[in-house]
Amino acid sequence: MCGRAILTPLDAIPSIPRDRGEPVFREPWEARAFALAVSLHGKGVFTWPEWAEALGREIAAAPADDGSHYYEHWLSALEKLVASKGLSNRPGKGFG
């Protein structure tokens, strides 16, 4: 073995709210948005660097908060990334 740690998708997102190393979701939609992003990455729709850049843009563009809006930024980034890949029938309009 080469001694390298095995990284998981969760390792690539250090800012995600956690409890004992596991993601924490306050609402069911947060878990669904998280799972959708992980699934789309697993299908090769986007890379983790693409995802990190998209999420970083959303967080940077938002007013400062206490972290309680993290998954709102997550969902917004996911909507825009999916639209930019041509996977949405409403480009730029989100899933709603």
TrEMBL record:
InterPro entries: CN_hydtase_beta-like_N (IPR049054), CN_hydtase_beta_C (IPR042262), Elect_transpt_acc-like_dom_sf (IPR008990), Nitrile_Hydratase_acc_put (IPR023808)
SUPFAM superfamilies documented for this protein: Electron transport accessory proteins (SSF50090)
Domain Nitrile hydratase beta subunit-like N-terminal: 17-88
Transmembrane annotation, as ranges: none
NCBIfam families, A to Z: nitrile_acc (TIGR03889)
Name of this protein: Nitrile hydratase accessory protein
